[in-house]
């Protein structure tokens, strides 16, 4: 993508309405535009990041054996009347009436709708287990939308739902998602801590929130300080190895880690010096709620003895759009955003410092084509930002690349002769004079260049 063509409406000043750094940076970097309270349009680089996060979430769901579906945003109120949540959900639910006076709603979550799909099509234990997910916009009429995409009213969620014959199966499904979540967040460059949490309007009594620590987070959390040194090498576990997975889960959940609703100072097993008290951002939340929805909605299957029994269920959510803000909270400096390469809007920025110089421009144009060939990977097939603009000062170009957080820069001016270029990494001030070939090798080794497997 050429900078002269890219729609990148960056802002010079920090907008006053943005209270936290991620929101400020998202607006300054031209990633989103608020259209009404808690509702955002995603502009090109913001949408690129969102899509990349979504793709990582998708790959990890698929790897864990979940299958992707797509349910609509608008739902009929009838299903929610069956489960009893139509009244329970209160003012957070956006209720709509269609022209035939039918009660509809903009889905805040999909337990009812998926239960309806499954009760229609699955009647026997032979068709279990099943785990279905979708990545779809949700609406919750939050009383206080704030912090930009972190607490929006319309937001993108990955939600999935597991269906099993018995508790043992449901627990295995829960443990698979537990691992899938840790893997997903690790790929996003985040250390997310699973914490025992309240289940709120979703229900059930077993649930974990996945929290990343950040001073600006809305959740107050308490955890064993050991968490900061936890070994994540076990994330490569095989999902089909039930025993190892269960042992991993038991190990991971043996640490004290809870959100404030679950924290009882008088019963806390840790002394103050071992207890980490911090603020955090909830990026995911998983639930086991057994037969809550299947019993209310008559979702039964026949077991091997021929009896009809209620399905065992769990649901699992990741705040895909919230993650965009969450990653920025975890990774930025005074200059701007520092994207992990896995979700960066572009992998590398190529800066032509002397676009009026013919030799320099010819070299840069050629380099752009070389880089494009290397970075022609899904989902964008052009992961290079080429700043070839004439009449734009080098300092401005540098600042923009730093602000929008591109992991690597290749700079070329008339002063670098032959095939030498300057290579700079976003998260370091060091600049290296290298040949173009060396630069490409370094990029290759840094695993930034990675074709989809
Ligand atoms: C689990 C999936 C559920 O809704 N039903 C289906 C369950 N859980 S949850 O905790 O309520 O939401 C899941 C994740 O969605 C994100 N999230 C939000 N993101 C942005 N703005 C919001 N207003 C918002 N509300 C929830 C969170 O990351 C949460 O963990």
Q: Gyration radius, to the nearest Å?
A: 24 Å
Find the count of extended strands (DSSP E, 2+ residues).
23
Number of helices in the DSSP assignment: 12
From the 3D coordinates, which CATH architecture of the largest domain would you assign?
2-Layer Sandwich
State the assembly state of the protein chains.
single chain
Given the C-alpha coordinates, what overall shape results? globular
Largest sheet: 9 strands, mixed
Distance between the termini: 24 Å
Mean pLDDT: 95
CATH superfamily of the largest domain: Bira Bifunctional Protein, Domain 2
In words, what does this structure look like?
The model has no long low-confidence stretch (mean pLDDT 95). Helices cover 30% and strands 27% of the residues. It has helices at residues 21-28, 44-63, 77-83, 85-88, 111-121, 167-187, 242-252, 292-297, 320-330, 358-374, 394-403, 436-445, and strands spanning 32-36, 39-42, 67-68, 74-76, 94-97, 103-106, 130-139, 154-164, 193-196, 206-213, 219-224, 257-259, 275-290, 300-302, 308-310, 312-319, 332-333, 336-337, 348-352, 384-387, 408-412, 420-425, 431-435. Strand 19, helix 10 and strand 20 form a beta-alpha-beta unit. It starts with 20 loop residues before the first helix and ends in an 8-residue tail after the last helix. The longest helix is centred in the middle third of the chain and has 21 residues, at 167-187.
């Amino acid at each position: 993508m050429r900078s002269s063509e890219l729609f990148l409406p960056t802002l010079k000043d920090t907008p006053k309405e943005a209270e936290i750094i991620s929101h400020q940076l998202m607006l300054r970097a031209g990633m989103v535009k608020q259209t009404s309270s808690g509702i955002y349009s995603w502009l090109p680089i913001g949408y690129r990041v969102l899509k990349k996060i979504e793709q990582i979430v998708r790959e990890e769901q698929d790897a864990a054996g979940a299958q992707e579906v797509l349910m609509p945003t608008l739902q009929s109120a009838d299903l929610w009347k069956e489960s009893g949540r139509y009244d329970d959900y209160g003012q957070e639910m956006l209720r709509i009436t269609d022209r035939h006076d039918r009660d509809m709603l903009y889905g805040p979550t999909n337990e009812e709708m998926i239960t309806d799909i499954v009760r229609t099509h699955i009647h026997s234990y032979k068709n279990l287990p099943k785990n279905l997910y979708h990545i779809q916009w949700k609406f919750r009429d939050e009383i206080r939308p704030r912090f930009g995409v972190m607490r929006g009213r319309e937001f993108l969620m990955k939600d999935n739902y597991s269906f099993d014959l018995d508790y043992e199966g449901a627990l295995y499904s829960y443990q698979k998602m537990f691992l899938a979540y840790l893997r997903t967040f690790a790929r996003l460059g985040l250390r997310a801590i699973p914490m025992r949490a309240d289940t709120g309007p979703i229900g059930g009594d077993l649930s974990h929130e996945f929290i990343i620590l950040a001073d600006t987070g809305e959740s107050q959390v308490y955890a064993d300080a050991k968490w900061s040194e936890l070994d994540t090498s076990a994330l490569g576990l095989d999902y089909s190895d039930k025993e190892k997975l269960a042992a991993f889960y038991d190990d991971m959940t043996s640490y004290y880690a809870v959100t404030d609703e679950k924290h009882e100072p008088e019963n806390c097993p840790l002394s103050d010096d071992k207890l980490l008290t911090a603020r955090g951002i909830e990026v995911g939340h998983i639930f086991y709620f057994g037969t809550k929805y299947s019993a209310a909605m008559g979702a039964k299957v026949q077991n091997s003895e021929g009896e009809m029994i209620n399905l065992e269920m769990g649901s699992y959510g990741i705040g895909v759009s919230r993650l965009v803000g969450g990653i920025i909270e975890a990774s930025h400096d005074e200059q701007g955003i520092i994207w992990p390469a896995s979700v960066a809007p572009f992998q590398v920025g190529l800066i032509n410092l002397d676009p009026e110089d013919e030799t320099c421009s010819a070299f840069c144009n050629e380099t752009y084509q070389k880089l494009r060939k290397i970075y022609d990977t899904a989902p964008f097939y052009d992961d290079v930002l080429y700043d070839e603009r004439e009449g734009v000062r080098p300092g401005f170009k540098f600042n923009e690349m730093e602000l929008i957080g591109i992991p690597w820069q290749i700079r070329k001016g008339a002063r670098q002769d032959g095939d030498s270029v300057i290579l700079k990494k976003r998260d370091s001030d060091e600049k290296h004079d290298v040949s173009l070939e060396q630069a490409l090798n370094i990029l290759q080794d840094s695993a930034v260049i990675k074709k989809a497997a």
